[in-house]
Amino acid sequence: MHDLAKDRSFRALWSTSHLGGANAAYLEALYDLYLNDPTAIDPAWRAYFDGLPRVDGQTTEVSHSIVRDAFRRIGREAAPAPAAVPAPVAADQERKQVRVLQLINAYRFRGHQRARLDPLELWERPKAPDLDLHYHGLTAGDLDTVFETGSLVGPRRAPLREILDILTRTYCGTIGAEYMHITDTAEKRWLQSCLESVRGVPAYPAEVKRRLLERLTAAEGLERYLHAKYVGQKRFSLEGAESLIALLEELVQRSGSYGMKEVVMGMAHRGRLNVLVNLMGKTPAELFLEFEGKARGSGNGTGDVKYHLGFSSDVQTPGGQVHLALAFNPSHLEIVGPVVQGSVRARQERLRDKYGVRVLPIVIHGDAAFAGQGVVMETFNMSQLRGYSAKGTVHVIVNNQIGFTTSLQQDARSTLYASDVAKMVNAPILHVNADDPEAVLFVAEIALDYRMTFHKDVIIDLIGYRRHGHSEADEPSVTQPAMYRRIRSLPTARERYASELVAQGVLDEAGVEAQVSSYRNALDAGASVAPNMVPRERSRYTYGADWARYVGKACPDAVETRVPRETVRELVERMSRLPEGFELHPNVAKVYENRGKMAAGALPLDWGFAENLAYASLLRDGYAVRISGQDSGRGTFFHRHAIVYNQKDGTAYVPLRNLYDEQPRFLVINSLLSEEAVLAFEYGYATTDPKTITVWEAQFGDFANNAQVVIDQFISAGEQKWERLSGLVMFLPHGYEGQGPEHSSGRPERYLQLCAQQNMTVCIPTTPAQLFHLLRRQMIQECRKPLVVFTPKSLLRLRHSFSALDDVTQGGFEKILGEPEGIEADAIRRVLLCAGKVYYDLAERRRETGRNDVAIVRVEQLYPFPAESLARELKRYPRATEFVWCQEEPRNQGAWYTTQHRLRAALPKGREVQYAGRPTSAAPAVGDYHLHLKQLHELLDDAFKPLA
């Protein structure tokens, strides 16, 4: 242990300091302040404390107790005679100096609790006593005393009165900044400089003020126009937070100055129509048609309500044109957040935007949803991960201080602010009063500059109110009488700001009214009212993905997906290359050795080989590959090994990323322990990049339960609601092996229930070659539909399921797998129909019993159902009289209920299909292995019972 009291530099400091003896408390308090926040003290002291020696070689922060003991020991050794003790006045001044520094620090930590953030002035926030002078041992008598200001931006020394004025204007005005929770000192200093250098809000020129009023006039004007013209219709008004439009416009224009090319936004319904018209450039004429129910769609889908629709446009900024995209979204408020992140990541990779300086995500939240929905936390958790980072998102909380009818501070959250969850990623939080448009503008500037400087998330908490009910037909005073009595008495933000500008001489009353009239006339004209819009014919947006070749295309019945034998050998040779000296684990080395034999035809092809070969062949053909999921690199079942690890030093290597010197991207990610946010991210990615096969893999199939909202609202219905295509692939490990209710079923019944209008493809391949062709088909075909694949578990090592090399060098994916050629078709009396792993159980029982009168037909594609292929296969057995659907899932689950009518349609006329499988069950599977086997044997007995 280092003896600080014997340190020469420390003793030298002490011997020359006026802080000896009775003033040791000052230095001790100063060090305590340093440990709490190094930026709060004078740079000279900070530099000294930074240079203190390490303790036990572990840390540069010497423990507080060691410093304190050193102070006391040196003080005792060097204590002067009583007559030489410094005067109490000097000691008192030194102690107060420390208290002033602590006061400065307190305002940085807690000044937001006294900020004037609530336009309604109804907030009840906990007291912050450490913002009072007396808390720090200071009094009104000290206000004219000059003190050191430490790291406070401004004069090095100032009277306490001036220091207090600086702190109050900076931290207790209409902006409340929370940033002292950030662990990075450079970020804190940067934010301190931004805030403290202007003492609150900068003085904007008259032109900027007039511009702000125009934006408030537009935001309010649209809402009043719609309120009068379409009485009682839902529009989820922005009234009470109109400054959002000015905030977003500043973010867009300022991002253009940075050289940004694309801005992707996501938001729920509150204020969405206002954003579409006043920022995105959707014409009022288009919006009015939607209100009148006359909007013209393509007629190919169901459409959606007007406040769910997406939009894109181009705007002119000081740095050139910027493409704006507002993501479509359902009413599941926060689920659009990770979708935007995925879309942005795809755009950034397309532009090779490594640092996020070309594509910016902006996500707009409601306060109740931000605090209440877990996907927000999941999305924050992704924000700095290498596989998911969008290099920083600007989050805007439109804080209405109410959730439908729920009082937020009493019932909707356990935190002081709705934004507190963002502290988990050290994001700065800038609370701002929505009725102060200049403060809103300043906060937008800081937020974007922070994001561009540090490439991290930042939060703007725009605190306003909701002038009407949840929807315009709702009566809010029933549940919040006090709040709405106050709201009815308030002038709008536009009215308030207009009065301020008239008082300042920036505008006169006629100028204010001219803005209102001009905007109303523009709405009547029906043309775009958003400023700086670029006409479509002058758009320079040329770096988007080409979706035209996929739009309106039906997926073909057959796709050529085979790969020549020589190409297989070449790809496997390249897949097997490892860096010199790279030592594989013996078990993995055996896997790679066997893959070489498989390529030569010496061993049948297993599932891991076929899957990796499919990816390698797609990379060779020019398609990128992205795979994510929990443990996807190795594979949950020790089968994929797309990432291998050097047993000498633990370094990782990805062979598929190193096939060729120039090749498309290959990324395989071991994801965070999330399903909802990760699946939504991958969906967003897949809707943005049709040239990448995007695969999300559940650790077990039913873990997708946690992401059901993504499946229901986006994957299954996105094309019908929003005409948005996606080629996302979902891998759901499925198979009954006695592992219990949570590790057996991928819940195929749920996906099949969602299938209609050719919206997605659901398959359950039973051989590695089938999986190989299925993955290649997904990219080669000129259509893009989500693909749900129920992947194997125990089959991964079942040699009976393995494929021959010729199965990948010939043919393609077969939707129906019947009996091989040469079977005695006239002997068949019963046909067993099935899907998935149960086929091998049925085949084994047939071998055991010698039942040559039974044929087994596998349905490999459950949707779109291959009725013609099945009917064709069944015609091979003209003497069959019994047809049985066999499944390992309970009767009320699996494919039976959603598929039986399709099976009947494919049977010979007059025939019926019977059921053999587990009985109905509330749980997906039993937890007792012996009961599992008992049910399996009963299933097989039923399937092979004597002919009637």
Automatic annotation (TrEMBL):
Annotated GO MF terms: oxoglutarate dehydrogenase (succinyl-transferring) activity; thiamine pyrophosphate binding
Cofactor: thiamine diphosphate
Protein name as annotated: 2-oxoglutarate dehydrogenase E1 component
Entry-linked Pfam families: 2-oxogl_dehyd_N, E1_dh, OxoGdeHyase_C, Transket_pyr
Gene Ontology terms describing biological process: tricarboxylic acid cycle
GO cellular component annotations of the record: cytosol; oxoglutarate dehydrogenase complex
Lineage: Bacteria, Pseudomonadati, Pseudomonadota, Gammaproteobacteria, Acidiferrobacterales
Function: E1 component of the 2-oxoglutarate dehydrogenase (OGDH) complex which catalyzes the decarboxylation of 2-oxoglutarate, the first step in the conversion of 2-oxoglutarate to succinyl-CoA and CO(2).
Family affiliation: Belongs to the alpha-ketoglutarate dehydrogenase family.
Keyword Oxidoreductase set for record: yes
Transketolase-like pyrimidine-binding domain span: 605-798
